[in-house]
UniProtKB/TrEMBL annotation:
SUPFAM superfamilies: Glutathione synthetase ATP-binding domain-like, Phosphoenolpyruvate/pyruvate domain, Phosphohistidine domain. Keywords: ATP-binding, Kinase, Magnesium, Metal-binding, Nucleotide-binding, Pyruvate, Transferase. It comes from Ornithinimicrobium cerasi. The active site is at residues 454, 839. The lineage of its organism: Bacteria, Bacillati, Actinomycetota, Actinomycetes, Micrococcales. This is Pyruvate, phosphate dikinase. It catalyses: pyruvate + phosphate + ATP = phosphoenolpyruvate + AMP + diphosphate + H(+). Residues 21-54, 58-292, 303-358 form the Pyruvate phosphate dikinase AMP/ATP-binding domain. Pfam families: PEP-utilizers, PEP-utilizers_C, PPDK_N. GO terms for molecular function: ATP binding; kinase activity; metal ion binding; pyruvate, phosphate dikinase activity.
Amino acid sequence: ESTTVRYLYDMSEGDASMRTILGGKGANLAEMKRLGIPVPDGFTVSTAACVATMGNQGEWPASLWDDTLEALARLEERTGRTLGGATRPLLLSVRSGAVHSMPGMMDTILNLGIGDETVESLGAESENPRFAWDSYRRFLQMYGDVVEGVPPHVYEDELTSLKKRRGVEQDTDLTTDDLKELVATFKEVSRRELGRDLPSDPREQLRGAIDAVFKSWDTPRARVYRKANAIPDDLGTAVNVMQMVFGNRGETSATGVCFTRNPSTGGKELYGEFLVNAQGEDVVAGIRTPRELSEMEEVLPQAYGELIRTMHELEAHYKDMQDIEFTVEEGTLYLLQTRSGKRTAAAALKVARDMVEEGVLTREEALRRVEPAQLDQLLHPAIDPDHDRTPLTRGLPASPGAAVGAVVFDADTAAERGQTEPVVLVRYETTPDDIHGVIVAKGVLTAHGGMTSHAAVVARGMGRPCVAGAQGIRINTAEKTLTIGARVFGEGDVITLDGTTGDVYGEALELVPPQVNEDFGAIVGWADEIRRLGVRANADTGEDAAKARELGAEGIGLCRTEHMFMAADRLPAVREMILAGSDEERAEALEKILPMQQEDFEGIFSAMKGLPVTVRLLDPPLHEFLPDLVEQSLLVQRLDLTGGDADELSEARTLLSQVKRLHEQNPMLGTRGCRLAMLYPEIPEMQTRAIVRAALAVKEREGETATVEIMIPLVAYARELQVQRQIVEQTVADELEAAGEQMEVHVGTMIELPRAAIVADQIAEHADFFSFGTNDLTQTGIGISRDDAEGGFLSAYVSDEVIPHNPFESIDKDGVGGLVQIGAERGRSAKPGLKLGVCGEHGGDPASIELFDALGLDYVSCSPFRVPIARFAAARSVL
Ligand code: PEP
Ligand code: MG
């Protein structure tokens, strides 16, 4: 096989392995043809042609048009029909098909090749002039919109106005004469909009249609979708040119969409919709509300039987749930597409697990079928079942999960308001152009469209709760009102959606954390058998620790102790300590804090039942314990001006001068972490006492010895760790001696400054373990403030693609990842087998976990709710 890329392939030349060049749709069509499944004949313009065109200012590669005409000639010969022919005309569909499916994001042109002559012969041939004229008006509408850029409402308005004048509701109620009139009107409004006629030469139309599909790769909505789904921008789309089959050829014709399993629940049951006498886009775009697939058995029994057989065949062949588009033309079934079906997280897990049980997939294959993000979705909340509540109305349960948010009526507003508050996007129906709003919204509610409408498919794929086709709602976009029965909601009013049941509520309901089900447990259990990385949790309280254990954490990788100082009942003592005039005063203040800390540690050790717990000693800057400088200045001023209580004033002044003394311009780079402990060794000493006493108390009470690891934060110099280790070890020894007990305590450090990574070999001399603090390592390694970056230039960098993603969410592999690599290598060079972990937010991010696994770290630590995702992602990275 030669490696030269071809621009064009006949359908019979391809197969499923050629998805990069033929796109998903083209490759699967070719595969179906190979399997002997009825597919309309055609050819595919390859992704290479699109890429070449994009790379050449929209200019087609030299040979492409000739290739197209030749492929067309072959297709004409095979079908015995002619494009634009006065007898036996060939009509074409021109459909996009990228490598990764992007449902509804790119363009399609149907019924191409119909014109003033062919419409007559098509009508005569099928003895159904109505169908021919209906196809004609559809073509004008689509071509005008997609290829020529006429605003679609221009045609929709004419269609609506004609239906109104005729007093009919459905498109199907229009007569042949009505449709003829509509064709004339459509030509006229197109001429008015464009200042010229639409082209009537079908070859010119074909060229325009292929070109429009190329261009649709680069529309804003397609870009947004790719970005949201991490699809590269340079893949291009293929274009599938196929003989039309007509689902609108009368009462024995139909079109539909079906899934081989239920994409909401994963249940092995029939799932799909169809419409008699309609074309595909009617179902997909949600223009008419379709009928349930099971009803097709009665209406079109033979085609139905064949469809069911084909569904089974395709699922078995691809070993995955399929999403299928079909058309029945005068009783004969054709498949127009099959692809791996987008599904909810719950469905993904159920299907994966069922297919392992059915012997279709191995466990490893099943794990590969589930995305880490899908597990994440399952950990989303549902409506509190114990709450009394009455829905205002009910629509279709299009995508499960509950959403509470302020009503907004358009995608732009959703995208904007959704940045700062939860919003629910309410639309008559959604179109692919709404994608940027759907991404940001907590949920989507539509008045129109079925379970396979665009809104439903997209929402399910993204894990957004969605209630679709809620017929009981009225939306007035001009006035921004949503009316449900007697209630009227304006923009900003809060509603709740239940995408699992389809219920809509007129108030904010309480949500409860999700219940992780058996499928979830099984899949994550398989992940545990495979993964190499350990998974711990970041937890600061006994409650969090218990949750972490429940979700499978193998220890605590980071117990931040600052909240133990910040709680309201402790702050006065902590201030006393900081502001103490002498060592004695400081010791006194610390004595008050110790028992409170001890109690906290007892809770955590008790919950962890002997599993390792890494306690990090105090980290935050001093000013966080003191009043704000500006506020304190204002207080002094106010007391001064009002001539208030003299004592109060003098006290406020003293505090102000102390605040000033401790004030730092850059507290994040100031007296934090071990720097504080170097100045006040009493603090790490007190904390160590509390830790040891807590461990001993739990041992005495519960018989379980805690595995304690004490971690020193913000170390830059080996000497810092040496000094701190000394303090900790001495204190441990003192406490154990006083208690007459024995216990092993490990001492390690965080690596969260670039200097620490670079001199990790020196630091390792004094460390039993390292834990990479990738939050601070990102802040100091890239030089972006953790606290100020969100929303500012960093958002612009991400949207302008200066950088691929927010480095605080997913690790900057080359830069910060490089520092981790250096730290790990140098640390282990000095101390082979040094235990290495990660406890920054990245410890719960699948892409980062993949890197940490590759770097050979021992464990990641993340927030309790991300533990299952981390367990799963750790398995995925070794698959
Ligand atoms: C870190 O810096 O990555 C870390 C875990 O510590 P903190 O977030 O508490 O600064
Ligand atoms: Mg840190």
